[in-house]
Amino acid sequence: MSSDKRLPASHTERLDAICRSTAIIPVLVIERLDHAVPLAQALVDGGLNVLEITLRTGCAVEAMQRIRDALPDVTIGAGTVLSLEQYRISEEIGVDFVVTPGTTPTLFDHGLASPVPMLPGIATVSELLTGWERGYQRFKFFPAEANGGAKALKSFAGPLPEAQFCPTGGVTVDNAADYLALPNVMCVGGSWMAPKSLVDQQDWAGITRLTREATQRYPR
Ligand code: 3PG
To answer: Can you list the alpha helix ranges (DSSP code H) found in 47-200?
Structure first.
């Protein structure tokens, strides 16, 4: 580890601005390029402006570029960043932030000097400490429900009360309330408002309906 290097405070501030502007960050898997803009528009129409677009599909990079061009007010996070190569591609596109499902020391170190702040994924206190010792204070907790859910996050606040989280993975419109009630939760992430079935049917109105249900229940 490059022990002399610490995360600049500006990264934490930028993540705070993003993660406190919304109670919910939708996690999107875009399989068809022509779905990108209507899907993003459907979420915006329902009240969500911060979108995590996962790099799990071949068209994800172009999808982010199209959304950026069509909807410049949307805040875009590149999700499922697994490697330095994917982090660098995200920097080149100029996304607003990067999200990882889990974080290697290599990714933690790269994020220190990157122009794009990273919300690093962690699931254990040891992983949390690997980031913490480099200055990271904001994390994605993934997969949240499978790793103890809101109870686990409550326990994380014992040793590290300053760490703040975006739990993701198994979060639903109903259990989101348990997470959002915790003082160490900034927002939650999830895919429930854009389920694959509705995306495949191009049921954009249905996605707006689910999104509005979520934003009315958890306004910000
Ligand atoms: C993620 O990568 O954050 C998850 O795939 C989202 O989890 P969910 O589909 O259980 O909401």
So the answer is: 60-70, 84-93, 105-113, 125-132, 149-156, 176-180, 196-200
